[in-house]
Specification:
The chain has 67 residues and is mainly alpha-helical. The protein has five helices and two strands. It has a single domain (4-65), classed as 434 Repressor (Amino-terminal Domain). It has a two-stranded antiparallel sheet.
């Protein structure tokens, strides 16, 4: 199974946003952002795109699937 790494926390902090602010902008609960940042949740494509747009970072820089 491919390893999932999430660099969301880094890019969220670069954007100077709290978890709550990001969650509100992408219409999810803060707990979803917490689980994403911990690498315990794989986002849907729509959520990944929404997050990418909000933090102004390419999806492939935020969410990385290794071999």
């Amino acid at each position: 199974m491919a390893e999932f790494k999430c660099y969301l926390k880094k890019y969220r902090q670069f954007a100077e946003m709290t978890q709550e602010e990001l969650a509100n902008r992408v219409n999810v609960r803060r707990e979803t952002i917490i689980r994403l940042e911990a690498g315990k949740y794989n986002p849907s494509l729509k959520l990944a795109i929404d997050i990418s747009r909000v933090v102004k970072t390419p999806i492939e820089d935020i969410f990385v699937f290794g071999e």
